[in-house]
Every structure is written in C-alpha cells, then in structure tokens.
Amino acid sequence: MSGSALLSLDRLAVTLPGGVPVIHDATLHVEPGEIVGIAGESGSGKSLTAAALLNLLPAGSRVTGGATFAGEDLLGLDRAGWRRIRGAGISMVFQDPTAALHPMLPIGRQLTEHMRRHLGLSRSDARARAVELLDQVRIPDPQRTLRSYPHQFSGGMRQRVAIAIALACRPKLLIADEPTTALDVTVQAGILALLSRLRDETGLSVLFITHDLGVLSALTSRTYVFYAGRVMETGPTGALLSTPRHPYTAALLGARPHGAAGVGSLRPIPGSPVVPGQAPPGCPFAPRCDFATADCTSAPPEPAPIGTDRLSACPVAPELEVTP
Amino acid sequence: MTAPLLDIDELAVEYRSRARGAVRAVAGVSLSVAAGEIVGLVGESGCGKSSLARAAVGLTAPHAGTVRFDGRPVTPVRWAKRPAAEVGLQMVFQNPYASLNPRRRIGDQIADGLPAGLPREQVRGRVAELLDRVGMGADTAAKYPHQFSGGQRQRLAIARALAGEPSMIIADEPVTALDASSQAQVVNLLVRLVRELGMGMLFISHDLALVRQIADRTAVMYLGKVVEVAPTARLWSAPSHPYTRALIDAVPTIAARPELPAVLAGEVPDPANAPSGCRFRPRCPAAFESCVDEPALLPIGDRASVACWLTTNGATA
C-alpha cells in the first residue's frame, strides 16, 4: 500500500479471550483526508476492528499482524502511548449517543475535560474552544448548551455533541461506528453533511462503519466489505456498489429495499450469519452462496486484485449483475 | 366501498406531565386499513407514530376520537379478558428482546394466544403449525428466547401474534432492530401473511425505502398529524407535501455520482409547544402567508389526501 497512509492495517488478526477468533487477516488503509467505509452485518467484526484501533478490546484478547497510525506502531504502544493516541490521534463516535454521554454531567464539562488534559488548555480557553466546536457541529446557542444536560437534547443533537467531543482534541482519524443508525433520515442527512464538511475544511480522515449501503455511497470514497471477520471485497465505493465482484456484496445489495414501489418483497440472504468461532473451514460465506463450488470449502480465499484498485476474496464468482 | 377493517377517526392521544403540561402526541388522525391492504406509516421520531399504534391496538386510551376494528369500537386493554372480537387485532413490537419473556419456553408463550381450554395435544399441534408458518422448526417450542438471534426472535413474536388468528396486525418498527439479511426475511414473512391470509397491516417504520417497497398506501405523519396519504407509488413519484419531499430527499441512495442527501433545516418541535398554523411552517422551504392557518387534510383524487395550502389553496375545509 502507499507509504503515505494515515492508518494501515496489515493482516490484523484478533482473538478474544477464550480463543474465539473474530478478525482474520484484515488489511486496510485510510489516507489523510479520506472517508473510508466498512460494511457488514452484526458479527462481521467491523466494530471489533474499531475497538482494536483504540485498544478497547476485552482484556486478554490477542492481536497479531500490523497496525500503524501516522507512522507509529499501534501494537507496540504502552499505556502512556495509548493515552496519547486516544482522543488526540484517533477518536471515536458510537452508535448510541445517549449511552456515550454522561447523563449527570453538563455538556460543557464533558466537552472540556479531555481538552484540558490533552491540549493543556486553561479552563477559559477550553470553554472558548468548546463553544467553537458546538458552533462547528451547528448546535444553536452554544453558551447555553455548555450548561445543559444530555437529556435536554434530541437524539440527533446528542450525536452532534458526541461528534464535537470526539473532535475536541483535533484527531487525525475519526472512527464512526454506525453513528446514524439510530437516527431519522433527516437527522442522518445532517450528520453526513457535517462529516463531509469537516473532511473538506480540516482534512479529517473518517472510518465510517455502517450496514447502510446508501450511506456508504453518499459519503465514502472507498469501502471494505467485512463478513465473519474477513475482508470479502474492497474498492472505490461507486464501482463496488455498481459492479460488485463478491457474491456477499451482491447479496447485501439485493437484500436492501431498492425502491421499485409495489415489488412487495425483498431478497433475503439465505441462512444466517456465521457465529464467531464457528466459521466453516473454507470461505465463510460458502454455505449461503449461490456460486459456491467444492473448492470453496477447503481454505478461505485470499483477497485477489481485480483491475487496478479492487480486491475480491472470491475466485469463482463471475462478474455479478445487480439490478439496483 | 366496503367498510375498512381498521378505522381510526380523529384520534387524539395526550400525555400529561407536571413539567410540560398536556402533550398532544397524536392530534387528530384519521386513517383506515382494509383487509388485504398494507398501509405504511412514516415520520421522524417523536411524530406520534408509536402513540397512534398503541392507541389503535388498545394499549393506550385515546383522549378523543375513535378506533373501530371490524365495525366495533376498540376498548382499551385492562386487567380483564379482552372481548373475543378484539383478539383479531394484534401487534408486533420493535424490540424482540423485550417482547418475549426470557424465562418461559417459546411454546408456552405462543400457546398464551390460543383459546383457553384446548386439549394439550391440540395446543401442541397448533404451536407447531404456527412455528412452521414463520419458518421455525417444531423443536423451537421447548427452547428459550436467548437461544435465538434477533431476527429469529422477531419471527417467534410474529408466531405469537398469529396465535390469536388476527385479521389485522399493527407492526411498530418490526425490523428496525434487525440486520439487513434478517430484516428481509421478517418483512417478507409479514407481507406473505397479509397476502395469503388476507389480513390488513399497519406497518410503522422510519425506513422510507422499506415502506416504499411493501406498502400499498403510505401515510406521512408530522408532529401528531397526518400531512399526506397516498398510494405508495404516487407518494414517491409525486409527493405533494413539502415534508414528504424532504423525507424522500433525505434518503441516501446508491448512485453512480454520489451525492449527499439533502438536509432539512431545523428540528422537530416539542409537541407540547407545537407551532401555530401549519405545524411544518417553521421548517418549510415553501411557507407563505396562508400557512399561519392550519390546513386540513383534503382529498386530491385517487385515494390521496394532503394537508398543505400549496396544493389545496382556495379550497376550504
């Protein structure tokens, strides 16, 4: 991969305590100022990948492979090193803003605490920056907001506050784990516009985790499709969603409501997702795949290049026709 | 036209709190669902969709207005046996983790919905039939909810709703908590039940794309009122209300030239403090002088109605 990548994972593998392997050989990179998507269903390992990037995995997890961020080896960091990276290097926005905010502390305290610690700002400087941040995420009346509590805001406003907190220490990379899944489409549109604007104005990189392919199409330049802890397919989002080259990507596209009114039914993916630790020996998607052959059940296929900038971990599927 | 199966007429639901006074979550909604019809109900959170659903099924006593099921008024549920005629009106809830009892076997929970006094053999047979209908094996009956995934639990919750042999199902965000692949399975199951058994269904969701795909008619709610209702295809191709248009424009689509979805300015106002006149006026890009008066929901042809002065200007309620 290119040497300038902000974040690069090289065959990252994660095993949870108890020996359950959850991520296998994930290779991924994020360039400065790039918004990259991770798609997949629950249990695909997309959130655990994010947790690994912030050393938030359960104690006793084993991580192998390589992970570098801004030239620094993440896997060799000590406690002090992680403290430096978290918040100021990589920060995170979670799915549920209600759970991410402390219900009993005023917004101002939650916004300034880590700025004072990481950036060494005085109380008044931190408050001034907090006002600026709330303004940046388009929260009306920032002064009053600093004195307010999370319950006084709607879900969308809370998520914008959570984004302001995540941006407070000027991180280079923001990991957003399903940040709009719990929100209305109207509010979601606002958050997507906000992230896009922050990328343009501040050069922020974003790793956006979602199962909504429409969101990926609107926001991201490249996408990684995860299934059972493996990268199934990756490439520029537009090309990946218009001509998927992995049956799982095609199945995800087929399962989403795609608009033609009155069709009356969706095309579900047969079977159910793999339970972590119980993956079949070959391609994890083989039991649910229309194209599976005997070869698919021996060893998991490696992602192989297709054209110049795409990879697919499927050697058998022909170019897949998808009717959007 | 035959009488609708479910007929909601000028329904209002109010909650009282010390801090905010009376909050009108549903402020006069009329909506009907015919047998064999799927009516979608969409709107942002806080618009009163769930309050409407709960009042329609009898879980909340309405403040005003009536709900009629199969011609008879629905009585609010109390600690007493439900009239037999109303057992045909069933509900599927959003969260399948909360709607099943974690400490009771699946079979027993489904059997709760069967008529009392059936011989045990018959109960077992009916439970197996119901499980089969939702695509679950007969051995499921002896298991507990924790042994199943979210999608499977939602199918079990549907099996329980079906035990009462309903002719009408109200589904409140039934697939919101589920993954893409189980979403499709549960939606297909519900649609198939409606088509095969001739049931009616009120399908509440904030996922517009999903409602577009399955609903025959779609109603759009804003701040306690229905602002537009129309056959689904027409609503999408030619939305009449600016709010409907804003909702549709906010849905991100997969396109060759990626584009961020359009942003609707402002937030949903507090229903305790609803704007005067047209409730959408403060956020509406097309608001003009007439909007200080509240527009009524008026028919605009072919089973479609809209409450907007842009469309119904000149007509009086």
UniProtKB/TrEMBL annotation, chain A:
GO annotation (BP), single: peptide transport
GO molecular function: ATP binding; ATP hydrolysis activity
Stretches assigned to the ABC transporter domain: 7-253
GO CC terms in record: plasma membrane
Source organism superkingdom: Bacteria
Keywords: ATP-binding, Cell membrane, Membrane, Nucleotide-binding, Transport
Compartments, as annotated in UniProt: Cell membrane
Topology term for the membrane: Peripheral membrane protein
Region: Disordered, residue numbers: 298-324
NCBIfam families xref list: oligo_HPY
Family under the similarity heading: Belongs to the ABC transporter superfamily.
Protein's name according to its UniProt entry: ABC transporter ATP-binding protein
Organism in which the protein naturally occurs: Actinocatenispora comari
Automatic annotation (TrEMBL), chain B:
UniProt keyword list: ATP-binding, Nucleotide-binding, Transport
Gene3D superfamilies recorded: P-loop containing nucleotide triphosphate hydrolases (3.40.50.300)
Entry's Gene Ontology molecular function annotations: ATP binding; ATP hydrolysis activity
SUPFAM superfamilies, per database record: P-loop containing nucleoside triphosphate hydrolases
Stretches assigned to the ABC transporter domain: 6-248
Superkingdom per UniProt: Bacteria
Cited PROSITE patterns: ABC_TRANSPORTER_1, ABC_TRANSPORTER_2
Keyword Transport in record: yes
Pfam family, one: oligo_HPY
GO biological process: peptide transport; transmembrane transport
Matching PANTHER family: D,D-DIPEPTIDE TRANSPORT ATP-BINDING PROTEIN DDPF-RELATED, TRANSPORT ATP-BINDING PROTEIN
Family: Belongs to the ABC transporter superfamily.
The protein, known as: ABC transporter ATP-binding protein
Native species: Actinocatenispora comari
